[in-house]
Amino acid sequence: MKKQIIVLIPLIGLLTTVWANEKTTLDIDNAIQRIPAIERSYIYSNMKNTIINSEKELISFLDDRKTDYLSKVLKNEKIDFTKSNLMIYLHTETAGSLKVFPIKSRIDADNNVTINIDIKSDFDMTSNDMAYYGFIYKIDKSIKQVTFDNFLDGVVMNPPSTITEIGLYSEFK
Question: Domain extents for the chain?
Fold first, then answer.
């Protein structure tokens, strides 16, 4: 009987170690949620890519911007900052005839998220005006990195506050 107990104790320790080292990949639909908001608007022209980690930061952000629209959208969302961060990804196009929109999100085993951004030309319309886009996301706090990638350049956001521009044109921005 003693031999059986001695054999089981190391086996339980091994199973506990394997279980503790197993990675849990989040469900993409629960880990990242796009907040419905106007995507193309002049209100984004004086903003930067932003990570908001707390209610206090949200209030400060909204007070600095003085936009009733964003205040209404973000306050109605009722974000629980103990579980989520808020990210605002901005994109500017020099031609209003280009349409910008997120097309696909994916999450890897390390809980890093990539959001692909598509840019399409509207050949029926030509315009020389600037187009300012903003996409607002609620991100689970366990997400380590979010990359917004439009296949030419992009933005990498690492909560709580690091934002890095990447790609071909990042040195000119």
Answer: 28-172
Sign of the four-CA dihedral 73, 78, 84, 85: positive
Which of 130, 146, 122 lies closest to 32 in space, CA to CA?
146
Rounded to the nearest angstrom, the gap between the alpha carbon of residue 116 and the centroid of all alpha carbons in its chain is 11
The secondary element (H helix, E strand) that includes residue 45 is: none
Distances (CA, A) of 27 to 77, 83, 89, 116, 145: 21, 15, 21, 17, 15
User: Minimal CA–CA distance to 51: which of 81, 6, 25?
Assistant: 81
CB neighbour list of residue 12: distance below 8 Å, 6 or more residues apart: none
Enter the pTM of the model: 0.73
The per-residue pLDDT for range 62-81, each reduced to its tens digit, is 888 777 888 888 888 888 99
CA distances to 16, 43, 53, 102, 119 from 83, in Å:
27, 28, 10, 24, 32
What are the CA-CA distances from residue 98 to residues 108, 130, 172 (Å)?
Answer: 30, 10, 20
